[in-house]
Amino acid sequence: xxxxxxxxxxxxxxLVLLAVWYVWxxxxxxxxxxxxxxxxxxxxxxxxxxxxxxxxxxxxLKAYMGHENETLVRIAELRSHASGNAPEAEQIKTGTELSxxxxxxxxxxxxxxxxxxxxxxxxxxxxxxxxxxxxxAIRRTYNAAVTDYNNALEMFPSCIVARRTRHxxxxxxxxxxxxxxxxxxxxxxx
Length: 190
Fold this sequence. Notes:
α1 packs parallel to α3 (88-109). The chain is built from eight helices and no strands. By secondary structure, the chain is mainly α.
């Protein structure tokens, strides 16, 4: 009887270890997925804060900048689109385009000495630059969280648990090629 009990205890021990590993891996995958969601939400919060600053910036710019009106209108359109009830992925995409426009607008401001001396504009510009830096940091954090999560989904042996529990890979934030190009400063003043 003792010879039969030892293999039974070993098999039971292995099954318990497998069950503990499975639960631990499943919980780890859930924690990684929730980290991705938290980072995505953080991007949306930062975008909302930035979008709240934009009307003040646009109002102070309109008084000085007549010929950049098209850029200001596009910024206002993107801001209203981003602040709606769009899905988080679309808000992030719109926020990326808005960042590109704001960078171009910042270069255009150089042509207006009175505007550069305006203290309210300086304060708004400083706040907006801080928001852009925060967004960059949050986007990097998001991409790192997505990479960790996707690695866990693809690497053995956690991929077994991931498939069984229907975890799906997340997408990294990718900057479109058009926004990676250098800004043609001469075209902004033409």
